[in-house]
Amino acid sequence: MGSFLPFQTVGKSHFRLLGVLLALLIALFATPSMADSCRLNTKVAAGGLGHNAACVVGLDGRLQTYEYGIYDPKDVNRDRSDGALREIRGQPPFVDLDENGDLTKASMEKIVTAYADYYGVDEVNVSHFPEADDLANAEIVGSQITQAISNGQRYHMFKRNCDDIASQMIVAAGAEKVKDGLIPNAVSLAERKGPAANRIARGDWSGQWLRNGDRTWSFSPGE
Predict the structure, then answer these.
(1) Which residue, 151, 129, 150, is CA-closest to 47?
(2) Phi/psi of residue 118, each to 5°?
(3) DSSP 3-state assignment of 44?
(4) Read out DSSP for 72-117?
(5) pLDDT of the residue at 124
(6) Angle, to 10 degrees, between the axis of helix 162-172 and the axis of helix 135-150?
């Protein structure tokens, strides 16, 4: 009987090895893609276009959006950083503005729809939305941050959080000051020149957007 023990041991080892290999294969194929690594872990886009993405609209209606501040401690997207920042895809390149240069509700719905479709969510909470003075500078700052991360620079969420990154971009877009990562509306140019406390203006379309069943949205303004 004893002569069979080595073979029995080898057999068990083989099973263990096969089990380990199977687990590795499952883990390999189950590893989220780069898009999944930045997917929100809730069906509510908390912070939405105000905290998880910086959206900058030029005075000509040209749109540039960046996703920033997503905490990725396991570096699932393999950019050698514990944060994720990249340009959002699926947004309309241009949006319509009204006679005052403000975003129309239809334009905002397009942006919210693209954002929600991208993440697979039915609720988007827009904190603030900018209509920026200088889209080009915001694009440059966003590109610089993206390039730094791709080069391996670590954007620690505890040392350089999403508010900091948002502030860099939005200040570059023309705001004098950004408080708590909230994005000011460029309609309030006069407010930006006033006391610091008045430089943060509410966005026209800030609030809660809930998806209806017919590709439209219900909007409730923020407080």
Answers:
(1) 129
(2) -60, -40
(3) strand
(4) -TT-TT-SSSSEEEEEPSS--SB--B-TTSPBPHHHHHHHHHHHHH
(5) 73
(6) 140
201 three-state secondary structure = coil
> What number of CA atoms fall less than 13 Å from residue 132's CA on the CB side?
27
Closest to 69 in 3D by CA, of 129, 158, 4 = 158
Q: Is pTM beyond 0.70 here?
A: no
Instruction: Give the three-state DSSP class for 33.
Output: coil
The domain ranges of the chain are 1-30, 34-221
The 3-state DSSP class for residue 215 equals coil
Start-to-end CA span in the chain (Å)? 79
Question: What average pLDDT does the chain have?
Answer: 56
For the record, the structure tokens of 178 come out as 């950004």
Q: Which residues pair with 37 in a beta bridge?
A: none
Burial (CB count <10 Å: 0-12, 13-18, 19+), residue 207: middle
One-letter identity of residue 137: N
Across the range 54-83, mean pLDDT stands at 60
Query: What torsion do the CA atoms of 113, 115, 116, 121 make, to the nearest 10 degrees?
Result: -170
Contact (CB, 8 A) for 133 and 149: no
Residue with tokens 């401690």: 73
